[in-house]
Design a protein that fits this description.
The protein is an alpha+beta fold. Helix content is 27%, strand content 21%. The protein has 16 helices and 22 strands. The strands form 5 sheets. Strands 1, 3, 12, 13, 14, 15, 16, 17, 18, 19 and 20 form an 11-stranded mixed sheet that branches. It has a 4-stranded antiparallel sheet with strand order 6-7-11-10, covered by helices on one side. Helix 7 runs parallel beside helix 8 and helix 12 crosses helix 13. It is globular, with a radius of gyration of 23 Å. The N terminus is likely disordered.
């Protein structure tokens, strides 16, 4: 979701995946020019609402929607997810094979010739680093239920869930340093997406030889040896900080953050179809074709410029005047009619696998459950929906699950069982009773450049103030707010989670005690146990049952409130072909290599 990343919340079994694929739609508003034919090459521009600020979206700080899209265009991996929510292997990059079911054993092999844009081969050392970051193997940090560190160390600030790869031991390396083999201690249902998927924030991530050099190690072999020889962490018996591993992890965590083009090209290497050529800070980023790329679908275009335009009206105006060719706005009430009035554009619409929500920190003013409940009782969810998404999607209602979206088969059952009906409408009188004369101050973090979230904040502040809360505006610009998540500088946050639409890894990623994307400090031993079972469960019905119970525990803790599922509305000039709607976080970029200019 990041969680925009923030990525990846909401899980689906196979049947649900089919339903989600069937409910997406494209609306054509103009016919293609008769007799037109595709011509390879050319330059286009795409408008996005976010601002690129990291080349490592697998890190907690870098895990935003726009950073993940950039990684998708500049990296390759073992598979990706198409707009039918099917997993598609990328056999030109490499292969992955389940060599044993008991124990579950999976071998990943990168093909010969696959390389980073500095010429270094992509291989086992890169995969070992990716595994080290995503497995959480070396962490021995012990925290309180509200997230305060009691002892030990957390090394890699990995944004995703470590549930899958924590079930594996140190990988076996083979095939002239081009393969690793993972052996699981338990079954893992989503093993195809557990490692190296392009859809998951850019395949195998950042290059090991660059991290090794930045950490002061001899080379990538030294880094791999460090990973192989360092013992697993044990929070009940924490070890002294390993200085070499600390240096490598710190470099992985922070070195790839950038709002401007780094002087050192090593910090933005590519192993995919495009490579970053230039950044105009706060304005745009230019991608150029990676001429050495031969291990995947070749892009038709020579260059793509990403323009950072938070205002949906600016995106529509840019599409109209031809300064951009594709837009992905956060739509408001005017976006659809303005686009329909343009002509010569194609509209791409459907439900997104994304939702906006209000989360409360389980510390400070909200350490007390009754204060959390009092605040949630003030939230006018129906009014928020009417002022935001209902203007684009008539009939939209507040979302009533923290785990399921409305398209998913188990949604209605979860909503009926989780207690969400207690928050169907604001109840200011009950909030005042719970406060009993207190007037707590609550600082709310949100993206002030996002029209939906700014409106949600306005309505929440208005209602909560009437009940006795003092609401402090903690809104920040589009390029700054995400970096504050989990910082302890706010009491509540309004933001969004997005999902791949396949698998269940997003649930523990956000709600497991101590998880990297658990910004609230929520902790429930009962929910943790259910999430551990969820990770290894292969039966779709049992998965739904587990998630329904997890959802109930989240609501019972007064975690926060889901606000609404986001409607998707993107548009492209009718001179660009093969732009197709995708409901998950990858959006229209899912098949960018097919984009082509009609002449």
């Amino acid at each position: 979701m990041r969680l925009n990343r923030l990525t990846k919340l909401c899980a689906a079994g196979a049947a649900t995946v089919l339903a989600l694929g069937a409910c997406t739609a494209e609306q054509r508003t103009a016919e293609e020019t008769p007799g037109s034919a595709p011509t390879p090459g050319g330059v286009i521009a795409v408008a996005e609402a976010g601002v690129v600020d990291s080349f490592n979206p697998q890190s907690t700080a870098g895990n935003t929607d726009i950073n993940r899209k950039l990684a998708y265009a500049t990296h390759s991996g073992f598979n990706y997810i198409d707009n039918n929510l099917d997993i598609v292997p990328l056999e030109d990059f490499g292969s992955y094979e389940r060599v044993s079911e008991d124990p579950l054993t999976v071998k990943y092999t990168v093909n010969e010739g696959v390389a980073w844009s500095d010429g270094a081969p992509v291989g086992a050392d890169d995969m070992m680093l990716a595994w080290a970051a995503a497995s959480g193997r070396f962490d021995d940090e012990l925290t309180t239920v509200d997230g305060a560190v009691l002892s030990g160390t957390r090394y890699f600030d990995y944004a995703g869930s470590t549930e899958a790869l924590s079930l594996t031991d140190v990988p076996e390396i083979g095939d002239d340093n081009r393969s690793i083999t993972l052996t699981y201690s338990q079954p893992y249902a989503d093993w195809e997406l557990a490692f190296g998927s392009l859809t998951d924030s850019g395949g195998i991530g950042v290059p090991a030889h660059i991290v090794a050099k930045g950490a002061g190690l001899g080379d990538e072999k030294a880094l791999t040896e460090l990973i192989r020889e360092t013992p697993a962490g044990n929070p009940l018996d924490p070890a002294p900080v390993d200085p070499e591993l600390r240096a490598a992890a710190d470099y992985w965590n922070t070195a790839f953050s950038a709002r401007t083009l780094p002087e050192d090209p090593a910090l933005y290497l590519s192993n995919g179809p495009f490579i970053v050529e230039d950044i105009n800070p706060g304005e745009s980023l230019t991608l150029a074709r990676n001429e050495d790329y031969r291990w995947g679908p070749a892009p038709s275009l020579d260059e793509i410029t990403i323009r950072f335009l938070a205002d949906p009206a600016e995106q529509v105006a840019a599409l109209q005047d031809g300064s951009v060719d594709i837009i992905a706005p956060q739509p408001d009430s005017r976006t659809l009619p303005d686009l329909e009035a343009l002509g010569n554009v194609d509209l791409h619409q459907g439900n997104q696998l994304a939702y906006d929500h209000l989360d409360l920190n389980f510390s400070g003013v909200f350490a007390d459950r009754s204060v959390r409940e009092a605040f949630l009782k003030t939230v006018p969810r129906q009014e928020i929906v009417e002022a935001t998404v209902q203007q684009l999607q008539p009939g939209a209602r507040p979302l009533d699950s923290e785990v399921f979206l409305t398209d998913q088969a188990a949604y209605e059952q979860a909503a009926a069982a989780n207690g969400s009906r207690e928050f169907a409408e604001a109840d200011l009188e009950r909030a005042r009773q719970l406060l009993d004369g207190d007037t707590p101050a609550v600082r709310i973090l949100y993206d002030r450049d996002n029209a939906y979230r700014a409106e949600a904040f306005r309505l929440i502040r208005q209602a909560a103030s009437e009940a006795g809360f003092e609401v402090v505006d903690g809104g920040l610009p589009a390029g700054e707010w995400a970096g504050r998540l989990g910082s302890g500088t706010y009491d509540a946050a309004i933001f969004g989670w997005t999902a791949t639409g396949v698998g269940v890894a997003g649930v523990p990623q956000v709600f497991r005690t101590g998880a990297a994307s658990n910004y609230s400090g929520f902790s429930s031993p009962e929910a943790d146990g259910l999430m551990a079972e969820l990770a290894t469960e292969t039966d779709t019905q049992r998965r739904d049952e587990l998630q329904i119970e997890i959802d109930r525990l989240i609501w019972d803790a007064r975690y926060g409130l889901p606000l609404f599922q986001l409607p998707g509305l993107q548009a492209s000039a009718d001179t660009i072909e093969h732009v197709e709607y995708m409901p998950n976080a990858t959006g229209l970029w899912w098949n960018f290599w097919e984009w082509n200019i009609l002449r």
